[in-house]
Design goal:
Blueprint (H helix, E strand, L loop, with lengths): L5 E10 L3 H14 L4 E6 L6 E11 L12 E4 L4 H4 L9 E4 L1 H4 L8 E2 L2 H8 L5 H12 L4 H11 L5 H23 L17 E4 H11 L4 E4 L6 H9 L1 H4 L2 E4 L3 H14 L3 E5 L1 H5 L2 H10 L3 E7 L16 H6 L8 E3 L4 H18 L2 E7 H4 L2 E4 L60 H21 L4 E4 L5 E6 L3 H11 L4 E6 L1 E3 L5 H7 L2 E6 L5 H10 L5 E4 L8 H14 L1
Parallel strand pairs: 1-4, 4-5, 5-6, 8-9, 8-10, 10-11, 11-13, 12-13, 16-17, 16-19, 19-20
Antiparallel strand pairs: 1-3, 2-3, 2-14, 7-14, 12-18, 15-17
Length: 569
């Protein structure tokens, strides 16, 4: 997608300079002006200093993938140009304070006095609104819309602060307008009328809203980026939706609180990242033994140990797939975009309740920290169907049901006792060392896996059904694969995306066997999903495109890698 259809704007500066403030304002502004918009960020694990950047794509049609290309760069500190050097080309337009950023001779900069204008208004912090105004002027947006959005964005601030931000934005707007009218910087992107009905969400918001739609009324977590955003959002709306939101003292407490909540009749989730999830594995096994529903959101980041805590990766699939001692069924879901994040999170609660197993929602830093416009969530597509039964006096929690799913009661709802035990147990939940009964109980638990497998959603085919080469991905790689395939535009090439990761739908084998060549795309170093597909279907993958430097795939590099593979054979 070229500059006539999509413009990539990148702002870069130190942590604490307000990069995210400009990002949030511009996203709202462009969406209000009728443009599809996408934003993602990369940032260091620092409160101050370092180099952080955000990419905003303004487009004539929906976009949801990261690109390396920078069409317009606004560097806010001296290190920004060196930090982004590999992405800057001769076509990159740089707007900045020449004296402040000290560009090399071969890298001309259009000098914009952000700091001086902000100081004249009264505070250096207003430089952000100046920058936002300049961008608005460059795109020929309506000034009245700009000031209206400023008022809405800073609405909780004092009237004086709102007025000064408006003044800063207006001054910046006129500078940008002048650059446009003199022909020095011109972007011609057509608005898209359908955008007016869309909403702007982040990945964290989509997961949190999906949890609410799934009936979540209890969330427990120990803060760990990038999974903390889901806890924060649910806590902000706790009173509004009657949610118990608990910041536990550690991850062990969080998962056990969630299990206790399910036992009492709530619909509970925990949200964490890989390092925090590692501490939960004994609780995950407890869920397996007591056959408790559980929803766990794991926002992946690079490891091992602390790794790169503010970067992205898809390296926790094996961890989630094999977490816990002993053998028990589980479900792993990995949304491919923000719309799927909502529906997947909602569905996770229903699946957990229905099959009485832990359900994992695997996202990553890229997905949860990304914003773009999506169609309004169709609430008529979601429903809450509790599976709890009213107990009788002869109720047995673990009755040996043919499908492995014993009717689940909760204390106080009916006349029966609801006994659960972390040891092996009989049908009433009492501890047992009867070895023959142990075998029957384990077989009962594992029978649920076959029912789950039959209910699994089949993977999504992207492109021509008569393909020879199949590009396979899972989780957050969906949109970048989709855009890369559109750029390559070859009829023999198609994509296959797995949102329901485990157990994969049996129908997936038909897509895989049809392909003469399979290319796997993963944000990890070992091809974890390759191993899963081989274990499930015995499928051999011809090529792997793996990335594990902490950044998401860009459209350009995926196009380059796929074309290289196609050309070499």
């Amino acid at each position: 997608m070229g500059k006539n259809e999509s413009v990539s704007i990148v702002l870069c500066g130190e942590a604490g300079q307000g990069i995210q403030t400009i990002e949030a304002f511009l996203i709202r502004l462009f969406k209000a002006a009728g443009y599809p918009v996408f934003a993602t960020k990369e940032y260091m694990s620092r409160i101050r200093g370092g180099s952080n950047s955000t990419e905003i794509r303004v487009s004539s049609r929906p976009v949801a993938a990261y690109v390396d290309r920078i069409d317009l760069l606004i560097p806010l500190d001296a290190d920004a140009l060196s930090h982004l050097e590999r992405r800057i080309t001769s076509n990159t337009i740089i707007l900045g304070e020449a004296a402040k950023i000290k560009p090399p001779e071969h890298r001309p900069v259009i000098d914009i006095p952000f700091s001086r204008i902000a100081a004249e208004i009264g505070n250096p912090i207003y430089a952000n609104s100046v920058a936002g105004g300049v961008v608005a002027g460059l795109f020929g947006l309506d000034l009245a819309l700009v000031t209206e959005e400023i008022e809405g964005f800073f609405g909780v601030k004092s009237p004086d602060i709102i007025q000064k931000n408006k003044e800063a934005a207006v001054k910046g707007f006129h500078l940008g307008k002048e650059l446009r009218e003199t022909g020095r910087v011109v972007f011609e992107i057509r608005p898209e009328a359908a955008v007016s009905d869309d909403i702007i969400v982040s990945g964290s918001e989509a997961v949190a809203l999906g949890a609410l739609a799934g009936g979540c009324n209890f969330v427990a977590a120990y803060p760990m980026s990038p999974g903390t955003g889901v806890l924060t959002i649910l806590a902000q709306h706790a009173r509004e939706f009657a949610i118990v939101a608990e910041q536990a003292e550690d991850e062990i407490s969080a998962v056990n609180m969630a299990l206790g909540a399910w036992y009492a009749g709530a619909r509970a989730m925990v949200t964490t990242s890989g390092g925090g999830f590692a501490l939960m594995t004994e609780g995950i096994s407890l869920a397996g033994m007591i056959e408790s529903p559980l929803v766990v959101h794991v926002a992946q980041r690079p490891g091992p140990a602390t790794g790169l805590p503010t970067r992205t990766e898809q390296a926790d699939l094996d961890l989630v797939l094999y977490a816990g001692h002993g053998e028990f069924p589980r479900i792993i879901l990995a949304p491919g975009n923000l719309s799927e994040a909502f529906y997947v999170a909602q569905k996770a609660f229903q699946l957990a309740d229905e099959y009485q197993v832990p359900v994992f929602v695997l996202t990553d830093q890229f997905l949860v920290d990304t914003y773009y416009n999506v169609p309004r969530f169709a609430l008529d597509r979601v429903s809450i169907k509790p599976q709890i039964v009213e107990t009788t006096q002869d109720y047995r929690r673990y009755v040996l049901a043919p499908d492995g799913i014993s009717p689940r009661g909760i204390p106080g709802y009916g006349t029966g006792l609801v006994g659960v035990d972390s040891d092996e147990h009989d049908e009433a939940g009492h501890l047992t060392e009867d070895l023959e009964l142990r075998v029957r109980m384990q077989q009962k638990r594992m029978r649920k896996l076959e029912a789950i497998r039959k209910a699994a959603d089949r993977p999504k085919l992207m492109g021509n059904e008569d393909y020879q080469t199949l590009v396979v991905g899972w989780g957050s790689s969906m949109e970048v694969i989709k855009e890369a395939l559109a750029e390559i535009d070859r009829p023999e090439l198609a994509g296959l995306h797995f949102t329901w990761v485990y157990p994969p739908a049996p129908e997936a084998i038909h897509y895989l066997r049809q392909a003469e060549r399979i290319i796997m795309v993963e944000n990890n170093s070992t091809g974890q999903f390759v191993k899963l597909l081989h274990a499930e279907f015995g499928v051999a993958v011809d090529h792997r495109i793996l990335k594990y430097n902490g950044l998401p795939f860009s459209v350009e590099e995926l196009v380059r890698e796929i074309v290289t593979i196609l050309t070499e054979e």
